[in-house]
Amino acid sequence: MKIITLTTDFGTKDYAAASVKGAIYTQCPEAKVVDITHDISPFNLFEAAYIVRIAHQNFPPGTIHLVGVDAVPHPHKQLLVAQHANHYFICADNGILSLLFQDSNPDQLFEITINPSGMLTNFPTRDIMVPVACHLAKGGVMSIIGRPRTEFEKLNSLQPKITDNQNVIVGSVIYFDNFGNVITNINRKLFDRIGKGRAFSINVRNKSFDHLVNRYIDVVKDFNQESFYYGNGMALFNAAGFLEIALYKSDPNTSGSTKSLYGLNMGDNISINFSES
To answer: Global pTM?
Structure first.
């Protein structure tokens, strides 16, 4: 039984997500469909890449990941299927692969040229990507669905930048989690490579942090008075390895979140300044 995961910006109010799942079960009844999320912000490739990049690592080899984000018909954004580290990714050539794989390239890459319906479609996620996913789930080979590609759209301009003679990393906000915590595109590997153990200051609007915690609970110094520390800010590298700015046990619906209290929006800059010595 093959697993097909779904990540889209369709939401759950409309029929789209259910229609995609129905199409999969019609064409491949033995498949196991797993919803990663349908709540990606519309057309937000950073959100989609962040979530898929983390989530896919917990699925078994051979899993097929269908990413229906910014996959609308477009003359310059062909549909692709990539094999990487024993997983398959079906998506549009809109730059998301460069965010998923970052410094590496797919082991195999094909542009999807088949059109199972033989008709123009306004719903390529269901009408083209689903048949490809089902073909792979049944053991089909990639070469049948299209032609080999070596290049794909890259969004290098949206990666963190190194400035001031390797003393500053300038990253940006790429995601807000369910608790309102702020996720940036700065990963631990980059931080260690540029920082080299130097003192630093993480600057988030008018707030700065000069140290990292390893776990959220590390901000609590006395668990007999734990509530005293609710809302304390912190910087840490989360389970996915990305720099996160968080508040300890802050309820976004009552006391506010990192996003609201720090006045941050998607794409806002967050910088790390390292000492020169």
So the answer is: 0.87
